[in-house]
Amino acid sequence: MRLISINERTHSKKVNDKKKENRILNENLQFIYNDKQIQQLGLSKELLRDKQIEYEKETGKSAVWEGRTTRTFYRYLTGQKIYERSKDRISLYISPQKKRKWHKFIENNESIASFSKLIRVGVDYYIKHHLNSLFVESNMDNKDFSNVLLEVKESLTAIKGFSQILLLQEYKEELSNKVANAIENIYEQCQLIESKISNSKGGKKIDVLLIEDSPQTVLLFEEIFKKKGYSYKTATTGQGGLNELKASIPKVVLLDVMLPDIDGYEVCKQIKKNNNLKHIPVFYETVIPEETVKSKIEETSVDGYILKPFDISAVIELLDSIILSN
After folding, report:
1. What is the pLDDT of residues 164-177, one digit of tens each?
2. CA triplet 11, 299, 36: central angle to 5 degrees?
3. Cα angle, residue 47 at apex, residues 46 and 49 outer, rounded to 5°
4. Number of domains making up the chain
5. Domain annotation covers residue 90
6. Whole-angstrom distance between the N-terminal and C-terminal Cα of the chain?
7. Could you list the residue range(s) of the whole structural domain that residue 57 is in?
8. Is residue 87 part of a domain?
9. What confidence tens digit (pLDDT) does each residue in 94-133 have?
């Protein structure tokens, strides 16, 4: 395990950001330009650079990953539609009269080019100006609410616990992929409900937030946390971890890099860009080679990293140094 000192981070941040971005763009462009599949498209280097910048701004993803052009960027270049798993699709049914009215509104507003953008703008406006109307008063008193909360927690404990047991390697090997995926979904939904329960109480401060999608690693860390008496929350996706940060403020975040939705690098960036969260120490824990992780330190402002397989005593020493000092 190697930790990045404050002096190292301070020195690295003095590097000119604009030059660094251009260097990364140029390096990635070289990979793209040399890609045989993309060469067949016959695009100039200048056009590829413009498309690369356009794609990364539009999707928030890199056109190059681990020295190879991504499939989604190739689809982008060939005009194919890119679907995001993390985005919900909404079907909208409206009367012909209202549809004509909306069409007329779009025609008169150049900044709104489609129904989907009109919906996004409308939802953003509603949240900004009518947030109070989203909250409904309840006749349930605090005692009744607490009793319901206890019942939910009891059931949630059993569902979440059995899901974790079934995802252990010795059980998971006996399950079909379809069943294993269903159980993983149940476990993830349990975590979502758990975060909503925490949020309903106004949130609280915790010692550790673990963002990790491997059930075995989650169980290992949970044993460490319980043994040391740390309070903690877990999330199995990057977006789930970001949602958890809205309900609980941890003293430290342990973050896996390879997650099923957005990767750990992007999660770290979002944490460090948030003025309310950027003070929280973030440490990657990953199987990715050290050189690759080190190349992302400046870009993501991560506080350090732990390489798997790790020394448990070293991890405990790290957590103690952060948690006890706070």
Report:
1. 888 887 777 788 88
2. 130
3. 65
4. 4
5. no
6. 22
7. 17-77
8. no
9. 677 777 788 788 788 777 767 667 777 777 777 666 655 4
